[in-house]
Amino acid sequence: MEFILVILAVILAVFLGWLVKSSFNAQPWVAEAVDETANQAPMNANARVVALATLLAVMTSFFALIMSAYGLRMDYGDWVPLNEPQLLWLNTGMLFLASFVLQWTRNGVVSGRVSRLKPGLMMTGLLTFAFLAGQFAAWRMLSASGQYISSNPANAFFYLMTVVHALHILGGMYVWARATLRVLKGAHPDSVRESVVLCTVYWHFLLIVWLVMFGMLLST
Amino acid sequence: MAYVSIADRDHEIEHHDPQTFITKYVWSQDHKVIAVQYSITAIFVGVVALILSAMMRLQLGFPDTFSFINPENYYQFVTMHGMIMVIYLLTALFLGGFGNYLIPLMCGSRDMVFPYMNMLSYWVYLLSVIILLTSFFVQGGSTGAGWTLYPPQAIMPGTPGIDMGIVLMLLSLAVFIVAFTMGGLNYVTTVLQARCEGMTLMRMPLSVWGIFMATVLGLLAFPALLVSAIMMLLDKTIMTSFFIPAISSMGTDPGHTGGSPILFQHLFWFFGHPEVYIVALPAFGIVSDLLSTHARKNIFGYRMMVWAIVIIGGLSFVVWAHHMYVSGMNPYFGFFFATTTLIIAVPTALKVYNWVLTLWQGNIHLRVPMLFAIGFVFTFIHGGLTGLFLGNVTIDLPLSDTYFVVAHFHMVMGVSPILVVFGAIYHWFPKITGKMYNETLGKWHFWMTFLGTYSIYLPMHYLGFLGVPRRYFAMGNTEFMPESAQTLNSSITLSALFVAATQILFFVNVIWSLKSGKKADPNPWGATTLEWQTPDTPPKHGNWGHDLPVVYRWAYDYSVPGYPDDFIPQNVPPQEAPAGREHGTEPD
User: Fold this and answer.
1) Max Cα–Cα distance, chain A, nearest Å
2) How far is Cα A125 from Cα A131, in angstroms, rounded to an integer?
């Protein structure tokens, strides 16, 4: 459980740091008008950014717990390490490229180079679909070689981790699809700007989660 | 500023402004309606759990008397009672109910930041409740694995409800967590982003602090329950071996290869212990506000109270294994978890001292909410002190799995938060409904509940010292248990039935008051917090009329010297009332 404890310690330390900053030396019993820009929204973020940051904290806890369980379970005698399909390297590349292209798109939208928007979003979707299709192909390859989910706890964790990660990607694809449809229908770039920015953060997050999980799978 | 405009954007308000009966009362996006929906559903399912506990007590008090209670359904009653009370009643009511009602009103917002997601949160919660209740009616009935759902027994033959019962329970929990996450994102974001002008973090009422921190805990801890539910569902349905060891069941080999039941326990209690504080922290916050308001005194040590809430929340993540002393662990781990458990008592005790010091020399009005709040201080001290016993490994080992444990956790996270729930409902009833409740009925309700619960749980500690084990359907002829233990059990059952029946007074009071209660003043208690300053009672959609309030002071300006009234609302500017206290001097 060390993994989840370290992750939680980091999350709580960030939270506590912000809280100390907001409350240190405060004298709440003094009545006075307060400059409305003081001590309010953290980091001047907007509500959707704060909601996404909170969601990512929840997801971090979720994935860290699965990985902690992985670490605890692999010490038991029935654990037979799985030979991960080489295809996963290609999938990793696809997800990395998707994240990269989305960052390129986001930079374009933020700096006014809106011509990047349509091709960037389309390419991101294509690469992400390629990642998901690759993951699906990896599951098929494993089951074709007799490596089913219930064959061994290592297999069970592999399927569980990759499936929940893919489901989170699909959740992100919902927001990506809405933004892309609006762009295709000719919506003004400003109207999808926030969605693109938030999607970029989400994609990067899921790339990092995948890299940590993949590293864990490969090294054990 | 973005944080104001988000709560106040015209198109947001128009977007979910209710137009029809359906959008106003059914598919409502108004936080107040959603709060009432959450509360009614939670209380309904809580009554189901109360009836289940009465059935259990009938068996324990008068064994071999009731033919409709057999060992199988006894365990189903125990399991469903526990799970419903902890998750579907208390968590949902404190966060979905009070959180929804109080956060926007106390922070001076028009609504939650994401009203549509807030609405979805309720309907997904309702779905989880329906799935849970459906499990009573499937083949084999609901699960009887105990609320902790420990494997391997939770899914192995011999335990009731191993067909669809356990599957529906796990599914329902997963759905509940989705609902909670949608609600939780709203509560956190609204507190951080939609406070009105002048409402700094350190001016927020402690109710909001408690609900906010409990939500943070829930968001970080519920994933542990989700992970364990998913893994157990896979163990049950497709024969993986996350938790189920290589085992022979009824002479057959089910095919599991060597999973770890202890892994489940770690995951479960990683959620389970913060869950205690998910229930307790909102209660801490609300009771602080009730005591301060009805004692006409500022809360003692506001900053300490805030920090105690935060520190308790943080520490609650490093004490989980004190639930597992008897599962077997390295003695150094036992020492570590006993130490952290005792450390968490420090900020908790600090809160108790501050509540008592808030009452000290206060102008105490023993109205119904105040009675419940003071009752909470009593029951919480009792439950907390027995927690110190159980937190120590050497004392826990002989007391583990006895009725001492049952008495402890019912006092600390059953009776105590429920007293706060009642106190809070009576306190905010005039604002929510626009009607006053019946004071006499309320006082009868309090005294019968308070004294009744003591007559249930004090003797139960004694049963625990005798070594009477919990979870047993029947005690049989066990030599170490004197006959008087059974007599005591019968008396506990009579008290439990009495307390359960007493709750009818509450429902009669609510229904009678809704129909015939006196019209409530906008601020009948002379409270300072913003929800009592709304232009309408009950508050209309959007809460504040045209302009959002502006806050100039904290929520505890009671009995300020030099001011004619004994309270100054948060939105009264310094020019119109004393500027609180002088800079740098903390009030008593």
Assistant:
1) 72
2) 10
**A32, A37, A72: residue with CB nearest B266:** A72
What pairs with residue B330 in β-bridges?
none
State the amino acid at position B106 in one-letter form: M
What is the SS3 string spanning chain A? Answer: CHHHHHHHHHHHHHHHHHHHHHHCCCCCCECCCCCCCCCCCHHHCCHHHHHHHHHHHHHHHHHHHHHHHHHHHCCCCCCCCCCCCCHHHHHHHHHHHHHHHHHHHHHHHHCCCHHHHHHHHHHHHHHHHHHHHHHHHHHHHHHHCCCCCCCCHHHHHHHHHHHHHHHHHHHHHHHHHHHHHHHHCCCCHHHHHHHHHHHHHHHHHHHHHHHHHHHHHHHC
At B573, list the tokens: 């500017």
What is the 3 state secondary structure string of B540-583? CCCCCCCCCCCCCCCCCCECCCCCCCCECCCCCCCCCCCCECCC
Distance CA B395, CA B406 (A): 15
Report yes or no for ipTM above 0.90: yes
Name the residue facing B554 among A28, A62, A78 (closest C-beta). Answer: A28
Of all helices (H) and strands (E), which one includes residue B366?
A: none
- Cα gap A157→A143, rounded to integer Å: 14
Amino acid at B307: W
| Closest to B558 measured CA to CA, from B539, B532, B535 | B532
Beta bridge partners of B249: B252
Cβ distance B235 to B259 under 8 Å? Answer: yes
Determine the 3-state secondary structure of B147 from DSSP: coil
State the Cα–Cα distance between residues B421 and B280, nearest whole angstrom: 11
CA distance A119 to chain B (A): 31
Closest-CA distance, A98 to chain B, in angstroms, reads: 27
Higher pLDDT: B246 or A63? It is A63
Kindly state the tokens that stand for B129: 């409740």
Note whether B296 and B363 are within 8 A (CB).
yes
Among B192, B256, B560, pick the best mutation site for testing chain A contact (most A Cβ within 10 A).
B192
Task: For B230-257, write each residue's pLDDT tens digit.
Answer: 999 999 999 899 999 888 888 888 888 8
Residues near A168 by Cβ (< 8 Å), separated by ≥ 6? A59, A206, A209
Tens of pLDDT along B558-584?
A: 999 888 899 999 999 988 877 665 544
d(CA B307, CA B375): 24
